[in-house]
Amino acid sequence: MPPVERLHLDHVVQTVSVLESVVLRSFGPEGGQVLFTRDTGQAMLSRSGARILTALRLEHPLARMVVECVLKHSTVTGDGSKTFILLLASLLRMIHKMACKEPNVSHTYTSRQTAEASTARHLADNILAFALEELDDLIAMGVIPYGCCLSWEDFTAKKHLPGPSNNDCVQKLLTSFFHSRLGRSHCDFISKLTCELLTHWKFKRDQPSLSLEFVNDNLDALHTPVSGFPISCSRLIEGQVIHRDFATPCPQTEQKTVKAAVFSGYLQPKLLNAGQVLQLGCGEQWMEENSKNNRSIVQFSAWTERSLECVFANLQSLGVSVILSAVKQSAAVLSLAAQAEMCVVECVSENELSLFAQLSGATPVSDCWMVEPEHVATLTFCRPILLGAHRYVHVAFNDSEERVTVKPCSLVICGLGEGQTDQYTCAFRDAIRMLLSTWEPMGMTATTASKRTLQSTKSTYSHVDQIPNVPPFQQCRLQPGYVIPAGGTFEFLLHHALLQNGTSCSASDDTVTSGLAVSQLLANALLIVPRQIYSHSPRHFLQAQARFQTIIQNHSHPFSLVYKQEHRSIFGESAFPLEEDKLTKQADVSAKLFMSDSGLESVSCKYQLLLAVLQCLSSILHVDTVLHTHTALHTQSRRLANTSWEDTDDETED
Amino acid sequence: MALNGDDKDFFDWEPPTEAEMKVIQARKERQDKISKLMGGYLLKGYRMLGDCCDVCGTILLQDKQQKLYCVSCQELDSDVDKDNPVLNAQAALSQVRERQLAAQAAAPPAPPPAPELNEGPSSSQASVLVPQPRPEHCEGAAAGGRALLPLPAVPSPTTPAPAPALVPPRAPVSPQSPVIPPLLQEAEEAVLIKLRWATSQLQSSASLETSIQLCSLIASCANSLRSLKELSQ
């Protein structure tokens, strides 16, 4: 095995094709599930792309690179791992075909393979540059008019446009997500539960992305997995569940409110840690009085325990009856707390403590000698709760003014086995991430932001030229929260928009042959997604394609409507008698698209997916050489030590 | 993708012909099959290594018993072996036909130094061979593991029916028709006569033992003919 290995385009295509064949069978609403078994006998069914890809045993460096890209993307958007691989494979195949047909012949290359590799690299870079600049415009023009914006106000709102469909709501988006992830049987139930949770956590005065970010960041503290129960036992619990049990017996109090204090450090300082030397000294007065007693550690410990009593006396005076501690307290603290009839919860995780602090408004105590009233939290109750096989601490907060918009609640997710519970939890987490990326404003890089200021001078879309001012255009592009029907709609619409863009700019400037080729390549590569969705019956794919073609053709461009509206005001009503027909037709078209019960998907997620795929593609094609190294421990393991990002000495580069 | 369009004249690139397109298509299908098989193995728990097979260049897999496994070499029919006449009968037959077609094209302009029987028998043999493609005869040659050339001679010995008609002109039939030294020619004729006698005996024999012995005689005659042909090369 040579230590240096040239990567040819064929290898790259084959590697990604292998990954594609792995995920292909689980892709789409009709896709199957993969059964995972362990040597211990545990078995689990899953359709999640990220899970399947991480379970593969891959030592090939390129394959591992691709899987890492997929996982990184999945942590951001929560979905789309299989689509990622599919799009990547399709783009690679098209680039391979194009590179083999017309290698870049302008430079001298030692072999046809290096010529092909160079062409492929150029193509990938061109496509990426094109996508970074133009893709959001195209999506805004070609896809968003056919979509609709989800309202954050009411999760189960009926659609306000005239028409029989009442399906556009966050719940429908979640249902289609859970359907693809967990199957048909429980998706409605779980999506309803998630909607309830989000309703409770809605910050009424703020944008949806803020409350979604909050839920996303604190997700670990906001849910409790319980195995051994059917999924239908999942429910919402008011307040917060702290995933620890009481360390001291919890006294039954009849009080209406409970006061709690959070300690982030030790109440009794640890005297001796491993590797430390403690030097004991004491004041001269003490020495004189007790000169018989040796200076010993026992005396010192007794002294510290006595000082603890002062701390507890202070806490009792403040009325504290619950102590939440981030670390494990010593036995002396526990016995003193039991004597003082206070309950202690130890080893609470940092996330939960920070959430508790946020919800209760009390700061954690850093110095146990200085416990002030602002460190004391007021709770409605604090009692044990039995969930599954574990006993946890359940707290509920007093409603204070700043928190009146939020009703804290926690989700209990039940599953029949640990694997299933884990699956539901991951699906729930990915759903939150997906919603977060839906409502996040579409990413604007510095280049696109500057480009928007030069909107009137440079435009690639011929219709826009005719419109003097475009405020609705800008509004359309930047507004988040758009969804379109699932089932390949996004790909079809973008395919059409790309082809139109290619033909419209084919006569303008001289870099267009590349622009045209790039648009066409991307457009054709996109179609793999609906093709695979309808792979069980190619007739449905053709039918869907024909249906979209007719819809697109019948649907006049929305900004020509704006144009006509302006002209109508100038020229009077007689100029455009068909105005109203076109408006109702647009409503009909959108209604027709949404009436099919295929579910919803988020436009923003798809856009991010496409960008991520193109970036991964560009990175892969820039890899020239693989250097194999042997680590000291495992002589058989190999690592990708170096990827050369520049061309090698074989090629002359401009 | 004309990134630098004007330099195209320097490079003599033509679009692939029909045959090349078929080859490309076949290769693409083979790669698809390989990918699918590899995906199945990955899902079964095989490990995808970072190495490639030395023979065919496909990515290697390793099973749980640490054995290396190449999907295309060990599972699919080899791409290259298909064209090797030593291993594949069809390839051998197609090579024979190609040589004969080339000889027919070359024969009229260049009169061969070998006897004029060449043209006659080669055309007759071509006309005989073409309607009867029988790979099992070629497999006899392939199993013998011998080289490519004596194939035109091989079909005849094992078929008694057309053999007698073809036996005399078969000897100098090889389309390249080099000059055969007279000693070898005599030896060939002797062997052929014996072969003829054996086949006639075989036709009329009724006993099992004699038939078996006659068949083995015919086989050894064929072998000796083959070696004589090799000698004459």
TrEMBL record, chain A:
The alphabetized list of GO BP terms reads: chaperone-mediated protein complex assembly
Q: Which Pfam families match?
A: Cpn60_TCP1
Q: Can you name one GO molecular function term for this protein?
A: ATP binding
- The domain of life is Eukaryota
Name of the protein? Bardet-Biedl syndrome 10
Source species of the chain: Champsocephalus gunnari (Mackerel icefish)
UniProtKB/TrEMBL annotation, chain B:
Give start-end positions of Low complexity composition bias.
Answer: 140-151
What spans are recorded as compositionally biased (Pro residues)? 152-170
Q: Which domain of life is it from?
A: Eukaryota
Q: Which InterPro entries match?
A: SSSCA1, UPF0148_domain
One Pfam family, please name it: Auto_anti-p27
The record's region (Disordered) falls at: 99-170
- Identification of the protein by name: Sjoegren syndrome/scleroderma autoantigen 1
- UniProt source species: Champsocephalus gunnari
